[in-house]
């Protein structure tokens, strides 16, 4: 890790040294943090109750009545970036980000099983379709170059991704039937699971490496600025010691078969014996690929007359993040990435309300991991060192029942 | 500016309102899952700590088979040999000393030289007539030097022989000779010979008993007269007069001498072992030794040769030769000979007068003294003392084992088969108790039971079998046990004889006995010696066992079993077992009511599980189970941490109290255990 940072700083230094000393220097430094939790089904009240401690049966029932399926996304990102111009119109941006993401989609039946267990569902079949869970932690070292002209700009970024940990479960079809009195469990499942080395959970353990690509462009047309972007289109290739588990079978579990009950002891009931009893688990250590969540979209900005408001911007953001690297780049693959991101197109409109050195940046959006309108509001204080603090779900504060996410972000900015 | 502060205040309020003490969510999950299943057939059942086996006959009918060996009945003491043969002393008076021969010669020339002008008158080779010459030799002394043989001798016996040989051409007369010790001039002997004709010898002897003689003896010729010749004779100076002294058959009281190597004693011994009235002719020795302990006071090197011609290994008789040093402080020198794997012939010496005998070992012990080449002083008290000890544990013995009686028992065989039955009745059918005897002795025997009782310690009931299957009164009846047959002595291949004594045990078992007491006598060779030689291998005794066969044809009427088991189950703190379900598919023709009484460490009852729940028998048709019954037992929550013991309380019933049901080996019972548990997720 230290060696890689050293190399990147060296590249950064070389780029920095190469600039023409005759041009006016522009330098900015950013440090920021962003925590976000969003769900397609869990509203603010539920979230608050969940994180207030014990989940009782009433809360369980309320959760289970929310929706037939559930999407959850938790993201925690910390980053540092430095921007400097190489020429009058060429800028570079070096950034370092530490990112932890958990993303899941599952049926209500799986939630029933998870919250209540199977006792309540004797003589019933709980079916789980399209269950997807992924947890990803990595660091990203990004170098972007941007050429700005009077009416357009074009940017290109390249990232090295230092992968720490990944856990992925994909189950297209699964079900569990619990016989009365638990006399047997009829299990059907099609599960692909991937996990990086679990022997060391150090935060910065290197279990894989990856790359990512950024492309940006903007045009000024008819007093409008049109931005297109694609951030973090890339992947991490995890090491060969990662566990790849594939199970596609039906299995009736009637407990551990004891050959000789007169030679019975506690160790017979250990979980390893259950796994031994079930020999259809295909497990191997191998490399696997996981994709980063790429943000792809555009936005249109237009100045508003008067000094009180900044630009008004409206746009569309989408995410592309397939689960499996199971086919080559094609339209199907593109479609798969959008579908498996479990992220719906996010439409937004935002503006800036300026009060001298203080601005409010309200943003109203719809979509993403939620199915509702979201109100994003941030406060920017411009001083020698500027601060920005905001939340992605301001509505969480006054209408939790109709809020499906919460989060906060903070950014510190200084011009050097 | 005020507006700015207002906005900041509003935002601060807004974000502070977001602040909430987040706690890790937790919730309870109720799970139900099968835990374990098993299929139990009757032949899987092993009754712990018992000797019960499950056996099946050709029809599949299951029997409980119990076997307990009685202690081996052996007759080892008949043939074990541990005997010390009384000691014997070999004294020095039996030492031989070689004959000593010393001679002296006087030539005619020497005699002529003693006559004045003799050599002129009688020149060598001349022819002359010899006149009578008196006193030709007078006080002539010569030394008899015996220092090559001894220094001094005090003799208890022996003879001195003196011989004069006249090789002169004329007769001699009035010969007088004296022998004296040169050291003290004591006379040893005096000899007189009146006439010794030419060409003849004269000889005389003297007993040396009580005499002391030195190595230097002076022989004094007191007088020799030469008789006149008969006419002329040829004078030959080489003609001579020879004197010879011989010491023979010397027996010493004490001597300082160069003792010759010689045999001191040769003891041929027949040692007869006391084996009662057994008459053993051959023993194969498994472990055995002979120890010879010797004490030698002789200051010269002693030596023994010990032979036991009748003790052979691979056909080679035992023989050994050992040096016996002079004793220090009277301690013996022990020689121990290992006779493992030897074969000992006990019929005595080959070609023995009176023919072969029995129980007798033939040995030879030859004692020697070795010559060291040094002067050694010995006296009559010097001796060898030795004794011999025989210790043999035989691998086998052949011959006649004699008559003997072994009283066996009382031996108590305890069993726990019925220990857990605390009530109800069980009716068993066609049970057998048999005493199985494998006789590896090559001798006939009679076996008489003096006691065989079955006892239920709990109820005090006692049952004694009265008759065997042949109708004999079991107690006191003489059961003949045939002798075994020796197939091959070399590899101990014995064909044992088998005797089986069978009884109907229904009555005995009806009291549910927990111990069986047995006493019996075995009489060896009750009819005396057989024409067929007996044999015995101690490693192959007379094996006797008691076997109990209980065919599972039963009628159970509230047969009540109770057993207590220690329980040590660690409760997983995260998991609480709330219910236990047991599915039982019963393929046995027996109904069962089961209760599990849960006790804490103070033996207080915590709960009773499966109370008033029953397992019904499988469906019977024509005394065969054709379909398993399905029974589901359910019980409430358990706290395993508190459980210290579980009492299993089970009552068995067969459907028909008048007809026995049979248990076959293809009957099985299936158990499937599932539990409802609660766990907290956090």
Write up what this structure looks like:
The complex is a heterodimer of chains A (416) and B (682). Helices cover 14% and strands 56% of the residues of chain A. Chain A is mostly beta strands. The mean pLDDT of chain A is 87. Chain B has 682 residues and is mostly beta strands. In chain B, strands 4, 16, 17, 18, 19, 20, 21, 22, 24 and 35 form a ten-stranded antiparallel β-sheet that branches. In chain B, strands 5, 8, 11, 12, 15 and 23 form a six-stranded antiparallel β-sheet that branches. In chain B, strands 26, 37, 39, 40, 44 and 45 form a six-stranded antiparallel β-sheet that branches. The mean pLDDT of chain B is 84. The interface between A and B is large, with 49 and 46 residues. Strand 11 (256-258) of chain A pairs parallel with strand 1 (26-41) of chain B.
| Count of helix runs of chain B | 4
Overall domain count of chain A = 1
User: How would you write the strand order of the largest sheet of chain A?
Assistant: 1-3-4-5-6-8-9-14-15-16-18-19-20-21
> Beta-strand level of the residues of chain A, as a percent range?
over 45%
Helix content of chain A: 10-25%
- Envelope shape of chain A: globular
Measured distance between first and last alpha carbons of chain A: 28 Å
The number of distinct β-strands of chain B equals 46
Most extensive interface, residues per chain? A-B, 49 and 46 residues
Outline the fold blueprint.
The complex is a heterodimer of chains A (416) and B (682).
Chain A: H1 2-17, E1 27-39, H2 44-50, E2 54-55, H3 57-64, E3 69-85, E4 90-107, H4 108-116, E5 124-148, E6 152-178, E7 185-195, E8 208-221, E9 224-238, E10 243-253, E11 256-258, H5 271-277, E12 282-285, E13 289-291, E14 294-303, E15 311-320, H6 331-340, E16 344-350, E17 353-355, E18 358-368, E19 373-381, E20 385-391, E21 405-415
Antiparallel strand pairs in A: 1-3, 1-21, 3-4, 4-5, 5-6, 6-7, 6-8, 7-10, 8-9, 9-13, 9-14, 10-12, 14-15, 15-16, 16-18, 17-18, 18-19, 19-20, 20-21
Chain B: H1 2-18, E1 26-41, E2 52-56, E3 62-69, E4 81-91, E5 100-107, H2 108-113, H3 118-121, E6 127-129, E7 133-145, E8 150-166, E9 172-181, E10 187-196, E11 201-207, E12 212-214, E13 216-226, E14 232-234, E15 240-257, E16 262-272, E17 279-296, E18 302-313, E19 316-324, E20 333-338, E21 343-345, E22 360-369, E23 376-379, E24 383-400, E25 404-414, E26 421-428, E27 432-439, E28 445-455, E29 462-463, E30 478-481, E31 485-488, E32 493-495, E33 497-504, H4 506-510, E34 515-524, E35 534-536, E36 542-551, E37 553-566, E38 575-586, E39 591-599, E40 605-615, E41 619-621, E42 624-627, E43 629-635, E44 645-653, E45 661-662, E46 668-681
């Amino acid at each position: 890790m230290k060696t890689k940072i050293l190399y990147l700083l060296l590249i950064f230094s070389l780029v920095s040294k190469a600039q023409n000393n005759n041009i006016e220097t522009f330098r900015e430094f950013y440090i920021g943090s962003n925590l976000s939790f969003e769900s397609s089904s869990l509203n603010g009240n539920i979230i608050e109750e969940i994180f207030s401690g014990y989940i009782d049966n009433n809360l369980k029932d309320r959760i289970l009545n929310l929706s037939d399926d559930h999407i959850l996304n938790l993201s925690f990102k910390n980053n540092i970036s430095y921007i400097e111009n190489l020429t009058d119109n060429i800028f570079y941006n070096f950034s370092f980000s530490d990112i932890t993401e958990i993303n899941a989609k599952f049926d209500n039946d799986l939630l029933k099983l998870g919250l209540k267990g199977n006792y309540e569902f004797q003589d019933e079949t709980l079916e789980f379709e399209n269950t997807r869970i992924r947890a990803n932690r990595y660091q990203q070292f990004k170098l972007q170059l941007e050429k700005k002209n009077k009416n357009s700009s074009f940017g290109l970024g390249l990232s090295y991704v230092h992968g720490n940990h990944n856990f992925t479960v994909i189950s297209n079809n699964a079900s569990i039937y619990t016989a009365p009195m638990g006399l047997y469990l009829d299990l059907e499942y099609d599960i692909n699971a991937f996990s990086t080395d679990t022997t060391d959970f150090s935060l910065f353990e290197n279990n894989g490496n990856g790359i990512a690509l950024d492309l940006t462009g903007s045009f000024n047309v008819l007093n409008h600025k049109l931005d297109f972007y694609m951030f973090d289109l890339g992947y991490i290739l995890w090491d060969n010691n990662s566990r790849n588990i594939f199970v596609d079978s039906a299995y009736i579990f009637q407990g551990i078969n004891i050959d000789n009950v007169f030679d019975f002891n506690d160790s017979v009931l250990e979980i390893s014996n259950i796994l031994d009893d079930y020999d259809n688990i295909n497990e191997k250590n191998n490399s696997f690929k996981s994709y980063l969540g790429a943000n792809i979209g555009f936005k249109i900005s237009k100045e508003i007359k008067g000094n009180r408001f900044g630009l008004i911007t409206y746009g569309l953001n989408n995410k592309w993040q397939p689960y499996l690297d199971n086919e080559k780049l094609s339209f199907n693959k593109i479609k798969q990435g959008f579908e498996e991101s479990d992220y719906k197109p996010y439409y937004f409109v935002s503006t800036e309300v300026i009060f001298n050195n203080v601005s409010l940046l309200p943003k109203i959006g719809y979509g993403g991991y939620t199915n509702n309108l979201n109100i994003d509001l941030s406060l920017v204080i411009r001083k020698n060192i500027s601060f920005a603090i905001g939340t992605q779900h301001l509505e969480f504060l006054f209408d939790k029942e109709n809020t499906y996410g919460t989060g906060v972000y903070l950014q510190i900015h200084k011009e050097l | 500016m005020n507006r700015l502060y207002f906005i900041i205040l509003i935002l601060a309020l807004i974000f502070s309102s977001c602040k909430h003490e987040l706690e890790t969510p937790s919730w309870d999950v109720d799970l139900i899952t099968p835990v374990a299943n098993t299929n139990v057939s009757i032949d899987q059942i092993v009754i712990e700590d018992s000797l019960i086996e499950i056996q099946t006959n050709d029809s599949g009918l299951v029997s409980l088979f119990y076997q307990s060996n009685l202690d081996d009945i052996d007759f080892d003491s008949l043939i074990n040999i541990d005997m010390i043969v009384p000691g014997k002393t070999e004294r020095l008076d039996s030492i031989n000393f070689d004959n000593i021969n010393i001679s002296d010669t006087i030539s005619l020339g020497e005699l002529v030289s003693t006559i004045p002008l003799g050599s002129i008158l009688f020149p060598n080779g001349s022819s002359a007539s010899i006149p009578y010459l008196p006193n030709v030799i007078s006080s002539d002394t010569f030394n008899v030097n015996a220092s090559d043989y001894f220094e001094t001798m005090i003799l208890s016996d022996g003879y001195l022989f003196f011989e004069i040989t006249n090789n002169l051409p004329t007769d001699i007369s009035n010969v007088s000779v004296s022998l004296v010790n040169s050291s003290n001039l004591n006379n040893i002997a005096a000899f007189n010979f009146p006439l010794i004709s030419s060409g003849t010898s004269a000889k005389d002897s003297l007993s040396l008993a009580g005499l002391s003689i030195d190595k230097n003896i002076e022989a004094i010729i007191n007088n020799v007269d030469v008789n006149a010749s008969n006419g002329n004779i040829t004078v030959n100076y080489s003609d001579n007069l020879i004197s010879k002294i011989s010491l023979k058959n010397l027996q010493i009281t004490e001597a300082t001498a160069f003792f010759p190597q010689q045999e001191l004693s040769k003891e041929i011994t027949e040692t007869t072992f006391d084996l009662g009235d057994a008459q053993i002719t051959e023993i194969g020795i498994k472990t055995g030794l002979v120890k010879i302990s010797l004490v030698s006071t002789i200051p010269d090197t002693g030596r023994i040769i010990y032979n036991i011609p009748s003790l052979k290994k691979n056909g080679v008789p035992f023989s050994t030769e050992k040096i016996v040093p002079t004793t220090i402080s009277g301690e013996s020198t022990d020689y121990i000979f290992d006779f493992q794997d030897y074969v000992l012939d006990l019929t005595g010496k080959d070609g023995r007068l009176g023919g072969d005998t029995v129980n007798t070992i033939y040995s030879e012990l030859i004692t020697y003294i070795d010559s060291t080449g040094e002067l050694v002083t010995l006296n009559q008290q010097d001796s060898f003392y030795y004794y011999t000890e025989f210790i043999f544990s035989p691998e086998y013995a052949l011959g006649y084992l004699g008559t003997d009686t072994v009283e066996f028992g009382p031996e108590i065989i305890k069993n726990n088969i019925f220990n857990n039955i605390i009530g109800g009745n069980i009716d068993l059918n066609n049970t057998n108790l048999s005493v199985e005897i494998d006789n590896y002795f090559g001798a006939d025997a009679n076996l008489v039971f003096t006691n065989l009782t079955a006892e239920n310690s709990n109820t005090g009931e006692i049952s004694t079998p009265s008759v065997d299957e042949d109708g004999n009164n079991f107690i006191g009846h003489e059961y003949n046990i045939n002798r075994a047959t020796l197939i091959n002595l070399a590899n101990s291949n014995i064909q044992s004889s088998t005797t089986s004594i069978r009884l109907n045990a229904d009555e005995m078992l009806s009291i549910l006995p927990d111990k069986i007491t047995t006493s019996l006598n075995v009489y060896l060779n009750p009819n005396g010696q057989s024409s067929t030689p007996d044999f015995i291998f101690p490693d192959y005794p007379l094996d006797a066992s008691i076997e109990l066969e209980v065919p599972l044809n039963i009628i159970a009427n509230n047969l009540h079993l109770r057993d207590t088991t220690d329980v040590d189950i660690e409760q997983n703190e995260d998991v609480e077992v709330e219910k236990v379900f047991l599915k039982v598919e019963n393929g046995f023709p027996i109904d069962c009511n089961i209760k599990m009484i849960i006790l804490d460490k103070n033996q207080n009852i915590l709960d009773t599980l499966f109370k008033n729940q029953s397992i019904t028998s499988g469906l019977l048709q024509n005394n065969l189970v054709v379909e398993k019954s399905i029974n589901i037992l359910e019980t409430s929550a358990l706290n395993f941490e508190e459980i210290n013991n579980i009492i299993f309380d089970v009552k068995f019933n067969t459907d028909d109290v008048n007809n026995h049901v049979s248990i076959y080996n293809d009957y099985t019972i299936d158990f499937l255990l599932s539990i409802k548990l609660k766990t907290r997720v956090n």
